[in-house]
Specification:
Structural class: alpha+beta
Strand order of the largest sheet: 1-2-3
Distance between the termini: 56 Å
Length: 136
């Protein structure tokens, strides 16, 4: 197998090419798999008044949806701080030489709350793994 660059309509495209033989035929056959353009194709910008309008609409869309509102930012920061505190508490409990059943229940409860907030089990397991799971 080898990579081939083909020019089609003035643009270059990459293909992975493989040669193989078919019984009964003298010449080998080729199988090509498309890999993508050599250079990314840039979208053509609209010109004139339509280009100006399109740019303004795109910028307005970016301002509206990418910027976080002040109250959303405060809520996000409060959630992140609470999560850091819970993680630190869990790490302290799990990294000790021994742990009581009540403390173990507390860790399980906070991990259950962590998972119910939309985090996957692998993220919860990772935070537990970071703490060093030593329960004696």
């Amino acid at each position: 197998m080898h990579e081939v660059i083909r020019t089609i309509n003035g643009r270059q495209y990459r293909y992975l090419e493989e040669s193989y033989r078919v019984p009964g035929l003298r010449t080998p056959r080729k199988r090509s798999t498309y890999l993508g353009p050599v250079e990314p194709v840039e979208r053509k910008r609209k010109v004139g008044i339509f280009g100006v309008i399109d740019d303004l609409v795109r910028k307005k869309h970016d301002w509206e949806y990418e910027k976080e509102k002040p109250h959303e930012e405060k809520e996000r920061i409060a959630r992140e701080d609470a999560e850091r505190e819970r993680t630190a508490r869990n790490n302290d409990l799990l990294s000790g030489k021994s742990i009581t059943l009540a403390e173990l229940a507390e860790v399980a409860e906070t991990q259950g709350a962590f998972a119910s907030q939309g985090h996957s089990d692998s993220q919860a397991d990772q935070s537990l793994g970071d703490a060093g799971e030593t329960a004696s």
